[in-house]
Amino acid sequence: MVSERVGTLSESRGGTGARGVCPFCSCGCGLRLLHDGLHTVGSAPVLKHPVSQGRLCARGWASHEPPAWGGRLLAPEIREGGERRRAGWDEALERAARELRALLEVGKAVGVLVSGRCTNEEAYLAAKLARGPLRTGHLDDPLGASYRALLAGLCPEGPPGEGGRALEAVEHSRQILLLEGDLSVTHPRAALAVLRAVRRGARLVTLGLARTPLSQVAAVHLSLDPLRPFALPPDLLGALGGGNGRPPEAPPTVLLAPFTSDPRIVAATVRALAEVLGSSGPDGGTGARFLPLPFRANTRGVLEGGVAPDRLPGGLALDDPQALARLRQVWGMDPWPRPGLDAAALLEQVRGLVVVGEDPPRSLPAPAKAREALKGLESLVVLDAYASATSDAATVVLPVAALQETEGTLTSLEGRIQGFGPAVPPPGRARPGWEVLFRLLELLGAPSGRAALGAVRAEMAEVVPGFRSLVGSSAEGEDMPAVARAGRTPEPDLRRAGAQGGGDAFGSHVLVLAGAFDWDDDLMVDASPTLRRDGASRRKLFPQGSVTMNPADARALGIRSGWSVRLRSRQGEAVVPVSLGTSVEPGVLLVPFAFREALSGVLGGEAAQRVEVERT
Amino acid sequence: MIAATRAEPDGRWVLPKENAGAWVERLLEGAQVIAPVAGPEGEEVYDVVRTPHQVLWDFVNPLDPPKRFVLPQTEPLARIEKTDGRFRVEPIHDEAPRVFLNLRNCDLQGFHFLRRMHAADLPDPSFLRRFDSLTLVSLACTRPCPWGFCICCEGGPFLREGYDLQLTDLGGVFLAEVGSAKGRKALEAGQGLFRPATEAEQVRRLELEQQALRSFGPETCHFGSAMRRISTRRVADELWEAMGPWCLECGGCNLACPTCYCFSVKDRSEEPWRGNAGGEGSAEQVWTRCRIWDSCQYQAFTLEASGHNPREAKRERIKRRFYHKVSAQYYRKDQALGCVGCGRCILVCMGTTDMPSVVAAIRKGRWEGGRL
Ligand code: SF4
Ligand code: SF4
Description:
Radius of gyration of chain A: 24 Å
Largest interface: A-B, 68 and 71 residues
Strand order of the largest sheet of chain A: 6-5-18-17-16-7-8
Oligomer: heterodimer
CATH class of the largest domain in chain A: Alpha Beta
Strand content of chain A: 15-25%
Bound molecules: iron/sulfur cluster
CATH topology of the largest domain in chain A: Rossmann fold
Number of helices of chain A: 23
Distance between the termini of chain B: 37 Å
Distance between the termini of chain A: 58 Å
Helix content of chain B: 25-40%
Shape of chain B: flat
Largest sheet of chain B: 8 strands, mixed
Strand content of chain B: 15-25%
Structural class of chain A: alpha/beta
Shape of chain A: globular
Number of domains of chain B: 2
């Protein structure tokens, strides 16, 4: 029998909320998270927030959904004889420590992967775990390489200082150069800054592999050569200057997003840009200011917390004697000073791995390889709020609170360090991530301080410069690095990158992997019923993947949208359906990043390949 | 059209400001009170109040819409339990008595728009029960808000009907106009705290309304001519196409809009919270069927199971939104414009395609990039 009952409008349905920071992209929008005491049930815009000023993109408006609707990890688990079983916290933590210690004792490599959806505090403790008791430099964020590639062309010593007002500066720029995948999707708040500047009369030049919404409002769109994007269009400066062949009068603002999955190509392109913009103009440079755009909410903070194979906390160099001495003093143990492998490479090499809030097959360019590598590990300790392919393969699962259920800070693309509190308690037996990492550090023998977030922050303030003034934002400092630093970048190894270009006559078209990340592949987007639809429908429509083709090419081949083509490169071949779009140039076939796996055989590990295209 | 009855001529009282707190105290005894309060970032938000001094009486209309309290972003509709392979479905109704205090009149008009939608065709009991247990006390705007254009769409600033009680700040006192039996009850809760309004106070109320009408700023929105152009198909597709890149598909215009009500329905597994919630019984699995806010500006909103999407392109979605809000066809169907002039879309728009900007573009037949 169906009975009725009177519910209560818990205060939270409409009102009471916790201060939140959007957990998706790095723009750093603020919001109010509404809850019913148990679930997060709403996201509300905040007019007085300095970044978002009352606005949120579709992801921000749905930022309460992932923790309430996602597949959550609820209790610690350990693998025994091929089966996983629930365990108590002490047992699971001791087991994790024992597995990792056993590998270290026999000299087997271990590594740590940390996601840009972790808090600064979690990232710092994970970096300390790696360079402290685990004595390894195999430490990375799977999306870190593409962010470091942007920085490597500009300021090799680390990301720009904590200015906090870079987006405002974009809005008031007179000339803007935008290197993008599709900024309106990757970083909507930054896209609004560009739209506002254009509305104010700024001259916008877009640069990329595809035509995007922002390229439609640009004065000029310049296409990059997909095989040699670092060989910039010759008319770049003229385009910025007003199309009359003169360089720009005002210092241009340059927004940089990773537009391809190969960090070497990204770094070379950024460096080429820095050279072009730095070597012209009356005083020997245009005075261009660069704004690199990390993908995830805390990609920047995770790097600054020390998560990189070649940096120390604070983004400092591994051979910086002062930084090492300070770490030794603060940690009470010697920090591991040697570089390690990046995320993709370390997965192939290590026997034991700690993964914090990440599902590498979703974020690395080669998902199948990542999945295989995870399965082959002797120890895989996973700290996450959500179940994933990675937690499925774990030997120890340590369930942690989602960002909406914990206290912490995130560092935005502008360098704003923003704090937030828990809106609701974590479900089941999940614990805050910082607390779990703290206990793991203790069990692995790191001298421990007080188990309190305040104590962790105090420690960070000693070694991470941005944390010394832990306030909402610092108006001081540098918003964007100037181009002058570009010259110090080491020459990237491009022997492989773009090698299929120049002079090679093979292939009628170029197959290109779009971007270096796809929100439709993101675990939190997948956990949100509102946000997951676009990706899910694309996957349903094209279970075998697809490529986007210019309608002119389709006409020449005599095919229509949805028909399949055979693509043949020197690496392999595949039959895939095409969808048509004028966003791609004739002669180019774009592979959505989320479909990279279906085309991996043809791409052969490269970001672009020449291919022959045939009707099937 | 409007659910409540017309204000009676004798229904004018005043509440001296020093009595306002005591009145809220009395209202709190019989109902939950929702009112504008200071939010965590120091800005006004609607929230459930615990004590009278939280209530704001002089405030800018909160950006986050009060519609959350009648149509929550995540609204539990039913509890579904599975035991021994059998399912049991239990509707969740929410009809606790509530007083919505200091609602602005544009939002009050939005509430009635929502009620009409949910009462029409197949009536929606979940919405109607919650709505009908609300007492709506509006506070008329004697100063227009900086971005509002309610004057262009019968949304305010003062109303003749629709409220249960309409308050006007006369300085030292609030003048209260009774609009319904529920309003009278709210007034009676303050027995001894109100007194009948004097002739001079009633004249002052009218003067303030005239003053408010005269002080609207440049933010206006000429719906009439836009409606004529839309309804006679004189808006070229190129106009919608040109707007496309200036909308970032955030959906904010819909989600913050007092009259938008599109939704989807999903089942949320209660597994993760079973331990925390307590008293979950012996069911093997428990779900909550929820209605969640949706936006016609999202690409997958109109996606059909076959994979076909009738509004795949952004220009089609933008066109659809304004067709629903501004066309004569929908005006007749909905008995009102789909806009109450609150101006929230101006503030939340991640792009520049808010209502006044688009209405201006429709009138001019030209898109110039919208608002700065
Ligand atoms: S622009 Fe980025 S930070 Fe802002 S709401 Fe959207 S995803 Fe979140
Ligand atoms: S019109 Fe503005 S508010 Fe609406 S979806 Fe587009 S960007 Fe968002």
